[in-house]
Predict the 3D structure of the following.
Amino acid sequence: MASDREIRISLTSIFAGTGIFTGSWAARIPAIKSEFHLSPARLGLILACMTLGAVAASPLAGYASARFGSRALLRISAPISALIFAFIALAPSTPLLALALFLMGASNGLVQVSMNTQAIALEGRYRRTILSTMHGGFSIGMMAGALVAALVTHFGVSYHAHLLVVAGLLFINGLAIGFFLIETERAPREHRRRAHLSLPLAMIIAVAFFELFCEGTASSWSSVYMHDSIGASSALAALTFGLYSLTMTAGRLWGDRLVLRMGVGGLVRTGGSIAVLGIALAVALQRPLFVLIGFALFGLGLSCQAPTLFRAAGQLPLPEGQGLAAVMASAWPAFLLVAPVIGGIASISSLRVALLLTVGAAVAMVSLSSGLGRFAPAPLAAAARSKQST
């Protein structure tokens, strides 16, 4: 039986691996856009395929996590996700690229639900908040992926070779982590049901929707904005997302302490306000330095939002994985919207004008955050339940 320390190292590695995939992919979007001669609108539709796959797979993730356990689900989905990433690198045409992104989104959705469910279970065993630090591992991986992408782009390495190497590393990692995971309790058959839309769950989903819209903007459009709208080099465009990832990492490493001091609502509200400032700065002052600073603030403001909201959803009184799956299915369409909507507006007007929609999403996130303090579970709810059961 694996120790808690071994499990934590294993889970941190899968969070980091998922981040490496995200950072590598996001930083190479401009190269893929150029390779397939995609307009902003077509690029938006192509990028939407990934989120469509994630949304489609979320109900399956919730059922499979409750039926077979998040451990088994993560063991299967992590290596499969890496193999599909290789398919993205090798896709020879736009339709096959769209299919690869759909499958990638579906497999990554299964990984997201199962790894967060495992992390929340481990947090209960530790009896202290560690989920934000886990997400810090994701951000470190995302930052590393983006920075390496900037470096290999500078030296002219094709995105095909780059992404294939990343896929191979993720496959090895996905196989290795399966030996060090938590065997969680499976829900009895009569309790395997879909999450009903309670007021706390609805509030978490609403805030997560706008938060994920903001994250989707950074992932899909930060590099494109710096390259196409500001006129910076491809390496500097990749660095934009890398800096966003760096500040997000820094914030998440402090998130477990901050959520105890500020509470769920206070932390989301404060972070959202910083995010508003950052994206507004990047849009208002069209100079490379200000865009870099703006996306750095954007990453810092968004850093603790996802782990705080995912923890709250995972601690609701529902079968394992059901709360997280509900958030994925209901809030992840924000990723589906951000790509075609931003791309469509950019085709009609400009990407700068389109990003005003993200400013509005960040403002909405701040406005809704006050309700989280009243309805979301306390940060240590899982630890308290674990303590009572011993």
User: Anything to note?
Assistant: The chain is about 80% helix and 0% strand. The radius of gyration is 19 Å. Confidence is low (pLDDT under 50) at residues 188-193, 383-390.
